[in-house]
Amino acid sequence: MDELDERLITLLRHNARRSISDLAADLGVSRATARARLARLEHSGEIVGYTVILRADTTNQPVRGIMMIEIEGQVTDRVIRTLGGLPAVSAIHTTNGRWDLIVELGTSTLADFDAVLRRIRLIAGIANSETSLLLATPRSTKAKL
């Protein structure tokens, strides 16, 4: 992936519905070049898909945070399934190091956030956790609304 591919991906991260003509103009290349680059990135698997970000995904959860979780025993898959059923959980990541999972959370209020944390800490197999509130997001690869 070269600098032109990276610039193309940056433009698509901000608005994946842009026309090839608009992308080509912003990149300073022909439409054919922009189309070929996009097709190559899709074919190679660098771009695996496109998504929709709903307003509700960004505005209805003003209290956001990440929770690092340590799992006790061989119950990681069960814990992931349980976490995945919670509406406040937007993403679950496995990781190495001190923590086994990193969970992204979002709720409407601090009281709701606290309730979710208490509920998660009661899941069998969770030995320890640490949570940080996300105060601001100065940079994101998600579309700006």
UniProtKB/TrEMBL annotation:
<dbReference type="GO" id="GO:0005829">
    <property type="term" value="C:cytosol"/>
</dbReference>
<dbReference type="InterPro" id="IPR019885">
    <property type="entry name" value="Tscrpt_reg_HTH_AsnC-type_CS"/>
</dbReference>
<dbReference type="InterPro" id="IPR019888">
    <property type="entry name" value="Tscrpt_reg_AsnC-like"/>
</dbReference>
<dbReference type="InterPro" id="IPR036390">
    <property type="entry name" value="WH_DNA-bd_sf"/>
</dbReference>
<dbReference type="InterPro" id="IPR011008">
    <property type="entry name" value="Dimeric_a/b-barrel"/>
</dbReference>
<feature type="domain" description="HTH asnC-type">
    <location>
        <begin position="1"/>
        <end position="62"/>
    </location>
</feature>
<dbReference type="GO" id="GO:0043565">
    <property type="term" value="F:sequence-specific DNA binding"/>
</dbReference>
<dbReference type="GO" id="GO:0043200">
    <property type="term" value="P:response to amino acid"/>
</dbReference>
<keyword id="KW-0805">Transcription regulation</keyword>
<dbReference type="Pfam" id="PF13404">
    <property type="entry name" value="HTH_AsnC-type"/>
</dbReference>
<protein>
    <submittedName>
        <fullName>Transcriptional regulator, AsnC family</fullName>
    </submittedName>
</protein>
<dbReference type="Pfam" id="PF01037">
    <property type="entry name" value="AsnC_trans_reg"/>
</dbReference>
<keyword id="KW-0804">Transcription</keyword>
<dbReference type="InterPro" id="IPR000485">
    <property type="entry name" value="AsnC-type_HTH_dom"/>
</dbReference>
<keyword id="KW-0238">DNA-binding</keyword>
<dbReference type="InterPro" id="IPR036388">
    <property type="entry name" value="WH-like_DNA-bd_sf"/>
</dbReference>
<dbReference type="InterPro" id="IPR019887">
    <property type="entry name" value="Tscrpt_reg_AsnC/Lrp_C"/>
</dbReference>
